[in-house]
Amino acid sequence: MTILSRRAFAAGTAALGVSTFAIGRARAAEFTYKFANNLQLSHPLNIRALEAADKIKQETNGRFELQVFPSSQLGSDTDTLGQLRSGAVDFFTLSGLILSTFIPVAAINGVGFAFKDSDTAFGAMDGKLGDFVKGEIAKSKTIFAFDKIWDNGFRQTTSSTKPISSPADLANFKIRVPPAALWTSMFKAFGSAPTTINFNEVYSALQSKVVDGQENPLAIISTSKLYEVQSYCSETNHMWDGFWFLANKANWDQIPVDIQAIVSKHINAAALNERADVAKLNATVKADLIAKGLKFNSVDAALFRDKLKSAGFYSEWKGKFGADAWGALEAAVGSLG
Ligand code: X2X
Q1: Ligand 1: distance of its center to the CA of 278 in Å?
Q2: Which domain holds residue 41?
Q3: End-to-end CA distance of the chain
Q4: pLDDT one-digit tens code per residue, 198-242
Q5: Which atom of ligand 1 is nearest to the CA of 155?
Q6: What is the reported pTM?
Q7: Are strands 91-95 and 150-154 parallel, antiparallel or unpaired?
Q8: What is the predicted pLDDT for the residue at 20?
Q9: Which residue's CA is minimally distant from atom 1 of ligand 1?
Q10: Label partner for 302 (CA 20 to 30 A): which of 142, 155, 156, 160?
């Protein structure tokens, strides 16, 4: 966050010691805020965020600049969450599951096989379940989430060693999981050997065989080029994941309300566009990944779900999330058993 005084802003670049007459030099914005994320520039999340940044700049007549830092440039997800909480970073898109290290209930969308499709997931996250989670995030008083969650997508399992066709193939499987208890718990329930690794180190961990596999939606497998270091993609669809667009509350409160309204409007609109882009990409990218050499297989999801049930995964997490949150999840998706 950089804030110039109103007077300095009005005086333009002279305030920065740069000649006001410098040709082609943009005037410094009055508010310059940092947005960090872990994805490549080619992912729809960054494409839509950059588009929103342009619109915000235009509509605020240059007063507000959203600086986009993709690819974990400001640090790993774990580091960046710390920076968001302290205010060193202003905005951050983060998986609800990773956010659960700070706000436990935020992991709830990651319960295995909870959502049957994207419409059900967005219905829940734009409805009561999402409101419940956003309410808990707001109670932190240090950060809050914008209204619309962004899509990450249904997660698929990739491997350099073998296809995952049945739950038995996950036994002792060396799989990378993101830093969140729910992920570790779920793959332990499958009998795997999960290792927690932040996303900015996943490509090299796969390349150097620290782990044999990982799980992510196709849009990420494609834009982060994980197909270069993986051979198989098993369509397990085991979890739906989304990114909350989070803000540091104290920094946000420094922005005049009219500018806040413009920023919120464009960020939430970008989320809806990004959802449509990811849906389109997930539908078309498979052929592209096959052409790049990734071998696909589908699975009987019911077998995987049964395995989680018999391992006690659902009863454990029902207890952890509590009756209110679990009730909001089941109201959206039906009984999870
Ligand atoms: O870390 C991951 O795998 C990613 C990119 O999907 C998340 O941000 C949770």
Answers
A1: 14
A2: 2-333
A3: 46
A4: 999 999 999 999 999 999 999 999 999 999 999 999 999 999 999
A5: 6
A6: 0.95
A7: unpaired
A8: 46
A9: 199
A10: 160
